[in-house]
């Protein structure tokens, strides 16, 4: 099940076959990509406030939701991981909303300038209100979709700058500029 042994081209071929309805490749594809999706989910669940869900539950729910995207014209593994980050964001936010909808002030803490700055610097070390963060990303998306995607990939996907550059098919310097803009914009929402 070690994904490093499966070449990028083979994963792309499996994604293509899967998107065209070949159910026979589905298990091999899941086996190939499971470690990547598990890494994304685990990155999020390091935070105490992310969810009561276990990593495996998030991965399973993500694969169920990803199954709805199988008709896409898959280009490569990077595109798959980008969509997986969006799906994981959705799973975690939905679960967080369900867990905290009945709580008044609950266990989560509202975002403040200091908290968001700490969270941006080390997202896996902070207790954060995921609903507020999700709302900020949605607002940013209306202003600059690429910058919002960089935030989503970094926070919900744990992707590095080179990985984001591959996913978005832009230079690393463009990713850095988008991240700097997004970071500044988010921080300005607390002034």
UniProtKB/TrEMBL annotation:
Domain RNA polymerase sigma-70 ECF-like HTH: 9-188
SUPFAM superfamilies: Sigma2 domain of RNA polymerase sigma factors, Sigma3 and sigma4 domains of RNA polymerase sigma factors
InterPro entries: HTH_Sigma70_ECF-like, RNA_pol_sigma-70_dom, RNA_pol_sigma70_ECF-like, RNA_pol_sigma_r2, RNA_pol_sigma_r3/r4-like, WH-like_DNA-bd_sf
Domain of life where this protein originates: Bacteria
Protein name: ECF-type sigma factor
């Amino acid at each position: 099940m070690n994904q490093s042994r499966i070449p990028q081209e083979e994963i792309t071929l499996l994604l293509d076959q899967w998107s065209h309805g070949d159910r026979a490749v589905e298990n091999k594809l899941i086996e190939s990509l499971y470690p990547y999706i598990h890494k994304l989910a685990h990155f999020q669940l390091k935070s105490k406030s992310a969810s009561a869900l276990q990593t495996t539950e998030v991965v399973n729910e993500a694969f169920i939701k990803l199954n709805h995207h199988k008709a896409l014209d898959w280009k490569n593994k990077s595109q798959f991981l980008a969509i997986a980050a969006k799906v994981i964001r959705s799973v975690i936010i939905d679960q967080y909303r369900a867990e905290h909808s009945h709580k008044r002030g609950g266990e989560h803490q509202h975002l403040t300038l200091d908290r968001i700055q700490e969270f941006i610097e080390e997202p896996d070390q902070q207790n954060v209100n995921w609903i507020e963060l999700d709302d900020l990303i949605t607002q940013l998306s209306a202003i600059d979709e690429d910058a919002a995607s960089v935030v989503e990939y970094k926070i919900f996907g744990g992707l590095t700058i080179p990985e984001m550059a591959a996913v978005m098919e832009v230079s690393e310097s463009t990713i850095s500029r988008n991240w700097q803009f997004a970071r500044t914009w988010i921080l300005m929402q607390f002034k």
